[in-house]
Amino acid sequence: MKTTTLILLVLLTCLHSLIAQKTEATILFKNGEVLTGLAKFKGEEKIIFRKTKKSEKQVFELDLVDTLKVHQKERSITYTQVRIKDSEKPKVLEMVSTGEKATLFRKISVGYNPGVPAPGGYGTGAIPTHYSISSSYVRKAGEDEAVYLGNNQLFSKNFKKGATELFQDCPSLIKKIENKEYKKKDIKDIIEFYNNECN
After folding, report:
1. Is the pTM of this model over 0.85?
2. 144 and 167 belong to one structural domain
């Protein structure tokens, strides 16, 4: 029981991630205006902003926002709203790697596995765990929508097929993917190769 309670507390902590908290951030609007203060997302469509903890709340539609940059001690993370191919609604995604030809985005979701009870139902065989799923999206220059390229789970979209279709304009990159020199876990390296080496 104590173990289950502890895991649930950890899970709740993970769910209140940076994009769900009021944290130091900079909002860059599409009209060029910049605001710095405390901000958090409200779903996939709005940002709640305060200049300071005691300031009055302001709510901005994400359609007006270019990027939201969240400031951590080690680094800053940039988020933006992105339209996804074959998806009705846009998603708030983290910008991982940008270049002249393509931009890599990702979305990290937290899940919960209650565990499997011990055979026969005796003891505390069930070990609850939490896990994260990192989903990758790529938007090529000049296009309005990003393409979903799967996630870090074992059984996900056929990455090799999706990547070769997306990067068919760069034979040298496709060769590296087909030869398994680049795999799903190397998505950031793939985007950097595409931006720097593909004509």
Report:
1. no
2. no
